């Protein structure tokens, strides 16, 4: 894998991913974070086009070799691109879902890109993604303006334990596929007629998480779904149509079914308002991500130092931190903690 090549790290955040999809020109879909992989949770988000899974990359896992689904090579019905550059895995996971969907409106840019690379081998598809000015520019527009965190470490480096990786799960032509750009090809997890893939994917992801030590909780799962406002508006229009038909037939909407329809219409209005508020918040957060606050912080600290207030504030901060750590240590001791080494660490950080 080559170096970062001007591809920056982006956050695992549904607002970022939704903005990235929109920035590429794709219409009618967004990304939602999910906290459970049970069928009921996924049912509420239908239609679900695919799942994006984030986990700590730990290289090839020999213990999992017997459990891995087979790799398919050169399947013309599956768009698969190998990841040839660091920091691009989030965007590649998103593209793996978008470019394998038969129902998503890709927009002009991505439609042309898919057509152009359709006959390329997987490695060349990866190079095409990394060299796409449009895709790279949109990806980098969501990079955090953080001078202290610039590039993801190379997986072969000594610090690879801090490397996190995105992969995608999506149904293609009646089969559930795992699309991981660090693999040689897509993994076929078997037939999934209809939307049964939502039942099949949960145990697969759970098994993957179970390979890690019990203390590892840094996983993230997001779903690419239809635009929620469009979904709510469509449901509301359907309920309104049913209510109108009921009123014309019965001459009144006072029946129990009429009350239920009116209640659902109000629920849809509330859901639309919540979604609009969420998008406003996400847009603000995305704007703040792009802003570099370091110069402002520097000037504030410089001003405090010139006024002779900085050292006092630092001492006060140290005092509060030490008090909080001592309180934490006392709570642990009250709970019967005997972790001497842990207590020594607390003292060390309190100095």
UniProtKB/TrEMBL annotation:
The record marks 180 as: Important for enzyme activity. The keyword GTP-binding does not apply. Keywords: Coiled coil, Hydrolase, Protease, Thiol protease, Ubl conjugation pathway. GO terms for molecular function: cysteine-type deubiquitinase activity. Residues 6-226 form the UCH catalytic domain. It is an enzyme of class 3 (hydrolase). Residues 321-351 are annotated as: Disordered. It catalyses: Thiol-dependent hydrolysis of ester, thioester, amide, peptide and isopeptide bonds formed by the C-terminal Gly of ubiquitin (a 76-residue protein attached to proteins as an intracellular targeting signal). The active site is at 89 (nucleophile), 165 (proton donor). Its EC number is 3.4.19.12. InterPro entries: Papain-like_cys_pep_sf, Peptidase_C12_UCH, Peptidase_C12_UCH_sf, Ubiquitinyl_hydrolase_UCH37, UCH_C. Residues 341-351 have a biased composition (Acidic residues). Residues 229-285 form a coiled coil. One of its GO terms (cellular component) is cytoplasm. Belongs to the peptidase C12 family. This is Ubiquitin carboxyl-terminal hydrolase. It comes from Entomortierella parvispora.
């Amino acid at each position: 894998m080559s170096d970062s090549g001007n591809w920056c790290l982006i956050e695992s955040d549904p607002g970022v991913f939704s903005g990235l999809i929109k920035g590429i020109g794709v219409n009618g879909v967004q990304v939602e974070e999910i906290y459970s992989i049970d069928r009921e949770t996924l049912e509420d988000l239908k239609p679900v086009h695919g799942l994006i899974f984030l986990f700590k990359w730990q290289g090839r896992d020999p213990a999992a070799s017997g459990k891995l689904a087979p790799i398919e090579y050169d399947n013309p019905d599956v768009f698969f691109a190998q990841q040839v550059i660091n920091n691009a895995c989030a965007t590649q996971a998103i593209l793996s879902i978008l470019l394998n969907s038969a129902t998503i409106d890709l927009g002009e840019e991505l439609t042309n890109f898919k057509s152009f690379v359709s006959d390329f081998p997987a490695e060349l598809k990866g190079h095409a993604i990394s060299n796409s000015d449009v895709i790279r520019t949109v990806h980098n527009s969501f990079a955090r303006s953080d001078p202290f965190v610039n590039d993801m470490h190379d997986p072969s480096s000594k610090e690879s334990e801090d490397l996190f990786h995105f992969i995608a799960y999506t149904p293609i032509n009646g089969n559930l596929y795992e699309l991981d750009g660090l693999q040689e090809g897509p993994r076929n997890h078997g037939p999934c007629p209809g939307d049964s893939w939502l039942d099949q994917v949960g145990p697969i992801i759970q098994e993957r998480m179970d390979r890690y030590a019990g203390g590892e909780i840094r996983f993230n799962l997001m779903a690419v779904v239809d635009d929620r406002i469009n979904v709510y508006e469509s449901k509301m229009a359907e309920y309104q149509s049913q209510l109108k038909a009921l009123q014309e037939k019965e001459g009144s909407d006072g029946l129990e079914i009429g009350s239920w329809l009116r209640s659902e219409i109000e629920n849809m209005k509330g859901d639309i308002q919540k979604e609009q508020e969420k998008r406003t918040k996400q847009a603000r957060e995305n704007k703040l991500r792009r802003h570099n606050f370091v110069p402002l912080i520097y000037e504030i600290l410089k001003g405090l130092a010139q006024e002779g207030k900085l050292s006092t504030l630092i001492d006060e901060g140290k005092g509060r931190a030490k008090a909080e750590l001592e309180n934490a240590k006392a709570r642990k001791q009250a709970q019967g903690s005997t972790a001497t080494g842990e207590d020594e660490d607390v003292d060390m950080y309190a100095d």
